[in-house]
Amino acid sequence: MEKFARGREQGRGRGEGDGEREGEEESDLLKGKILANLFYEPSTRTRLSFETAMKRLGGEVLNLYSTETSSVAKGENLADTIRTVSGYCDAIVLRHPREGASRMAASLASVPVINAGDGAGQHPTQTLLDLYTLKKEGLLENLRIALVGDLKYGRTVHSLAYALALYGATLFFVSPEALRMPEEVKMDLRAAGAAGAAEAEAAGAAGAGAEVFETSDLSAVVKEVDVLYVTRIQKERFPDPAEYRKVAGAYRVTRGLLKENEDLVIMHPLPRVDEIDAAVDGTKNARYFKQAFYGVPVRMAVLSTLLGAGGERRREGEEKQGASKNARGNRRNSGVGEEAPRTLRERTADDRE
Ligand code: NCD
Questions:
Q1: How far away, in angstroms, is 276 Cα from ligand 1 center?
Q2: What residues are annotated to the active site?
Q3: What averages of pLDDT result for each successive group of 10 residues across the chain (353 residues)?
Q4: 2-15+24-120+295-328, what's its fold?
Q5: How far is the CA of 271 from the centre of ligand 1 (A)?
Q6: Residue 212 to residues 143, 184, 189, 344, Cα–Cα distance (Å)
Q7: Which pTM was predicted?
Q8: Residue 40, SS3?
């Protein structure tokens, strides 16, 4: 990944990007390969950074821009679209409002499927770039981090919490009562201490299990943590708009709050609505635009792992063994190669089958 993150010197002003080298490396590793971006929900960073990543690697990109301009508008179901599009490309990036959509797509597609967000479920490649950001900041070991905002519907925080458990992080879940982290995720995190040792080892991570604290009070945790990972309240996922109005604007990170802990690092998967004041953008604490930039080198790493020479040989081997249908949760769904451990939730779901 590091090799994709070097390149042009980026001289920005204060705060983010200050003195940072930003990646514009190019390669023809994926020349002749085609990536299909299928987005059934809005996206700026994920779709564009996948497109940039693929193009920087010499590959090409097909885009299903919006459902209005495709046969989805004629009533085509996801299964038929996936079967069709798999014949046109070498890998699919899928964002869909339904939880489990990528898993289902992966079981039907003849090419790898990368989950770019499945409803309120997971967003694994966002987690990779979040981890990369933390690693670049030297914060991944012994991390104390608050996940703030919509922990119920926010898919980025679900994936991130699972991943951070592999690093033995201390997690503070800060949300309104109605938007608490799902019980299922918390159960998995508690179990991680006992059951996750092998996964942590497979990921090369320091320790298994997370210590978890829950609160609604942001000011109470500000001095306790190294990082605030702030999220948007996911308006579009509320069945009742009145319920959204009750929690909208619940948290706001301001320069005043930063006075409580001057070294606090502020991350956000973006887009933000009003949960981080624009005055924070120019401070040394803000990392969210740098974090968004890391989407390019991280997704270059994902695509080259999946579609580069090594990935292709792995897939051929798998197909020869007739194992491709059973490789779910690893190569096909996570997009991080067959060495990737399944998330705890995936493991639990598979174990039930
Ligand atoms: C997030 C998403 O789509 O889940 N955005 C992203 O991919 N960076 C966060 C959000 O929409 O709030």
A1: 15
A2: 45-46, 74, 95, 123
A3: 54 41 77 96 96 97 81 84 96 96 97 98 98 97 96 98 93 97 91 61 62 95 98 96 96 96 98 97 98 97 91 62 41 35 38 32
A4: Rossmann fold (3.40.50)
A5: 6
A6: 12, 14, 8, 16
A7: 0.83
A8: coil
